[in-house]
Specification:
Layout: H1 2-58, H2 60-81, H3 86-95, H4 101-117, E1 119-120, H5 123-126, E2 127-135, E3 139-146, E4 152-159, H6 165-178, E5 187-193, E6 197-202, H7 222-241, E7 244-245, E8 254-256, E9 264-266, E10 273-274, E11 278-283, H8 291-294, E12 302-303, H9 306-322, H10 335-344, H11 360-369, H12 414-425, E13 481-484
Parallel strand pairs: 1-5
Antiparallel strand pairs: 2-3, 3-4, 4-6, 5-6, 7-10, 8-9, 11-12, 11-13
Helix pairs in contact: 1-2, 2-4, 4-6, 7-9
This protein binds adenosine-5'-triphosphate.
Biased composition (Low complexity): 447-463
GO molecular function: ATP binding; protein serine/threonine kinase activity
Catalytic activity: L-threonyl-[protein] + ATP = O-phospho-L-threonyl-[protein] + ADP + H(+); L-seryl-[protein] + ATP = O-phospho-L-seryl-[protein] + ADP + H(+)
């Protein structure tokens, strides 16, 4: 019995040992399988990343899709992983006084993605530079053709010397974020750097910008202007709904695809900030700058607000319809502005001379858009209610500068008259007559280290100024550059 029992025990032990060894082998196999699986996954993810980066470089159109789907994915993930709750609410409140948490998180994440994918690139390897499309304060925009796809694109170059990486990423991400709107310039999802520049790609607007097609002192026809205004208003409303403020609305930033303005898109989101962000004024004003931002006595900072876009939009409308600026700056001391402000505050019943070409309906619209008190300014959406009304008294005449336009009846000081004469002399340099952009206009009144690329005058001239090449004269007006505090 004992021998039998002992034999059984031995057998059992051997069986158990064998089983254990088999288990161990099996476990080892499983571990190595798992390792292999993990390695394959890592490898796949790595090569997917490499392929995607390569596609970014090789194939503009695919890259656009990739970027858009990345943006959509970020949005989806955020919605899935962040249910509304006390934590999220407090975070949003901290981020923005206007509670614009949706756009905030997406914008931050888009910036992160862009930063992770930013690679150094030899531009000539992938793009053939056709010509320069424009120059701005911080860089230039070139028309290029993608060497492999043959796609025409506009590459925006921001000088590293004057642009922080953060600012570049912000402009790029905001542009990408807003690009689904059909009235905002489309993006290709391509961003890279060279030794001297940060660069991103956007769709090429074949007809240039709005500034080029506004005939000085004449303006666009009411039909064309309305068509353009309608599209810009939709773009601006889209932006405002996302709790963003453009802060640089002007004709140079409205890109056009045909001279009749059938297709128009808003661009240049370099100054765009979240509504409610604190900023402080550093220097300068342009005719589009709202009066509250022009006040030199105001020392405290500003809160970014939609109403400043609405003001600029109102000035833009005036420029489009007349080919003139309503004033040089919305400040006391500017005779044209003062006359307007008196009428606007109902201290004078007389419609200012510059404004007498408009119908009562159009004047009502301007009164709402250009309210001196920013809290009384309407939303940009309100212009939609005015499209069925006539805007110009001489609309049938195609806004011809002569007939119907009342003469200026503001008494000018002699120095103002000199400036006026100077400007009239410069009319041959107007963008409509110029084959090349960038000719300078002399002006004795304004000079600054920064400039805008258009110059104002309520007295007739309507010029674009080259920001870089100022050897022929002084710069006309300064750009409102504000920095976040
Ligand atoms: N996608 C485009 N297609 C065609 N032309 C363009 C495009 N983007 C920009 N431009 C031209 O280049 C000019 C300068 O571009 P942009 O306004 O983006 O530069 P910026 O440095 O931001 O200028 P700013 O000094 O006004 O801020 C525009 O006014 C326009 O004439």
């Amino acid at each position: 019995m004992g021998g039998f029992t002992g034999g059984v025990r031995r057998d059992n032990r051997e069986r158990l040992d064998g089983q254990r060894t088999a288990d161990r082998q099996c476990q080892r196999q499983r571990v190595s399988l798992l390792r292999f699986h993990l390695q394959t996954q890592v490898h796949a993810a790595e090569s997917k990343r490499r392929r995607r980066t390569q596609r970014f470089l090789d194939d503009g159109l695919t890259a656009a899709d990739t970027a858009r789907s990345a943006s959509r994915k970020v949005h989806r993930n955020r919605l899935q992983t962040q249910p509304l709750g006390p934590d999220r609410t407090s975070r949003s409140m901290n981020s923005s006084p206007h509670g614009s948490h949706a756009s905030i998180d997406i914008l931050e994440e888009l910036q992160l993605i862009a930063a992770q994918n930013l690679e150094k690139l030899d531009i000539h390897k992938y793009y053939e530079v056709v010509r320069e499309l424009g120059k701005g304060t911080y860089g230039k925009v070139d028309l290029v053709v993608h060497k492999i796809r043959g796609t025409k694109m506009a590459l925006k170059f921001l000088r590293k010397r004057t642009t922080k990486l953060k600012s570049f990423l912000r402009e790029y991400s905001v542009s990408l974020y807003l690009s689904p709107c059909p009235f905002i310039i489309n993006m290709y999802g391509i961003a890279f750097e060279t030794d001297d520049y940060y660069v991103f790609a956007q769709e090429y607007a074949v007809a240039g910008d709005l500034f080029d097609i506004i005939p000085p002192q004449v303006g666009l026809t009411e039909t064309v202007a309305k068509r353009c205004v309608h599209q810009v208003a939709i773009a601006l409303d889209y932006l405002h709904c996302k709790k963003l403020v453009h802060r640089d609305i002007k004709p140079e930033n409205i890109l056009i695809f045909d001279k009749e303005c059938r297709k128009v898109k808003l661009s240049d989101f370099g100054m765009t900030r979240r509504a409610g962000s604190p900023v402080k004024r550093v220097s300068g004003t342009i005719p589009y700058t709202a009066p509250e931002l022009c006040d030199p006595c105001r020392r405290e900072g500003f809160c970014v607000d939609h109403s400043t876009d609405v003001w600029a939009f109102g000035v833009l409308l005036f420029c489009m319809l007349t080919g003139n600026f309503p004033w040089e700056k919305a400040m006391p001391g500017d005779a044209f502005y003062e006359e307007f402000a008196r009428w606007q505050r109902r201290r004078s019943g007389a419609v200012p001379s510059q404004w007498r070409r408009f119908t009562d309906d159009a004047l009502r619209m301007f009164r709402r858009l250009l309210s001196i008190e920013q809290e009384r300014r309407c939303s940009v959406k309100e212009v939609f209610g005015y499209f069925n009304h006539g805007w110009m008294l001489d609309a049938e005449n195609g806004n011809g500068g002569g007939a119907g336009v009342p003469p200026l009846d503001i008494s000018l000081t002699s120095s103002e008259e000199d400036v006026l004469v100077d400007r009239l002399k410069q009319q041959s340099l107007s963008p409509v007559c110029m084959a090349t952009k960038g000719n300078m206009v002399m002006d004795t009144h304004y000079s600054s280290s920064m400039s805008t690329n258009s110059s104002p005058s309520s007295t007739g001239s309507y010029e674009r100024v080259n920001r870089e090449n100022n050897e022929r004269g002084r710069l006309l007006v300064t750009t409102p550059i504000e920095i976040c505090v």
